[in-house]
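Project outcomes to date are best conveyed with an example. Our students and postdoctoral researchers have been running inverse folding experiments weekly, and each run begins with a structure described purely in C-alpha cells. The record below, which covers 164 residues, was selected by the lab manager from last quarter's runs and is presented without edits.
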C-alpha cells in the first residue's frame, strides 16, 4: 500500500512539474509553407529612374503551425545577371517566424532604386529569388515539410521595366 501511494505521489509531482516546453510536439501535422509571390511596385520619380518595392510573400498551405524557440526563416535574394544557377545570390532581406495559421501569409519588402537606362530592353537585369528555409535543414527540427518543392520562387527583374 505504501508503495502504491508513493508511486501516485511521484506521478502527481511529475505531472505538476511539467512546463509548456516539456510537452511533446505533434509531429503528425502537415507542415507546408509555400512561396506565394514576388511582386514589384513602382514609386515614380521620373521617366527612367524610380524607386521599386520588391515584395516576397509566403503562405501556410498546411496545418496551423506554432513553435517555441524554433524559428522558420524566409529569405529574399537579388541575383545579378550571370549568377550561377546553384547560388542564391546576394541576401537583401529576411524574416523569421514561429507561428503561422493555415491560410495566413507573411510578406517581406525591399526598397531599391531602378533605372531603366541601366537595364535597357531588360538585358542584364538581376532576378529575385524567395526561399523558405526550415530549421530542420540546420538542426534537429521535429517537423518535416510535406512539400519542399514549393519553397522557392524566382522572378526576373526585367518585369520591373514593364511597370514604366
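After processing, the design step wrote out the following sequence:
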Amino acid at each position: 500500500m505504501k508503495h502504491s501511494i508513493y508511486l501516485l505521489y511521484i506521478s502527481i509531482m511529475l505531472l505538476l512539474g511539467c512546463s509548456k516546453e516539456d510537452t511533446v510536439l505533434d509531429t503528425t501535422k502537415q507542415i507546408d509553407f509555400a512561396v506565394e509571390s514576388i511582386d514589384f511596385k513602382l514609386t515614380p520619380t521620373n521617366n527612367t529612374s524610380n524607386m521599386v518595392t520588391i515584395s516576397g510573400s509566403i503562405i501556410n498551405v498546411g496545418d496551423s503551425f506554432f513553435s517555441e524557440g524554433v524559428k522558420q526563416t524566409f529569405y529574399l535574394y537579388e541575383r545579378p545577371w550571370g549568377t550561377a544557377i546553384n547560388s542564391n545570390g546576394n541576401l537583401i532581406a529576411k524574416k523569421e517566424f514561429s507561428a503561422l495559421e493555415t491560410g495566413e501569409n507573411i510578406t517581406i519588402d525591399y526598397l531599391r532604386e531602378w533605372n531603366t537606362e541601366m537595364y535597357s530592353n531588360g538585358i542584364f537585369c538581376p532576378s529575385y529569388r524567395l526561399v523558405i528555409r526550415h530549421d530542420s535543414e540546420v538542426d534537429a527540427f521535429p517537423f518535416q515539410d510535406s512539400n519542399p518543392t514549393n519553397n522557392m520562387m524566382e522572378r526576373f527583374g526585367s518585369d520591373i521595366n514593364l511597370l514604366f
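Confidence is low (pLDDT under 50) at residues 6-10, 13-25. The beta strands are 33-44, 49-60, 65-66, 72-79, 90-97, 99-100, 105-115, 127-133, 152-156. The training component of this project remains on track.
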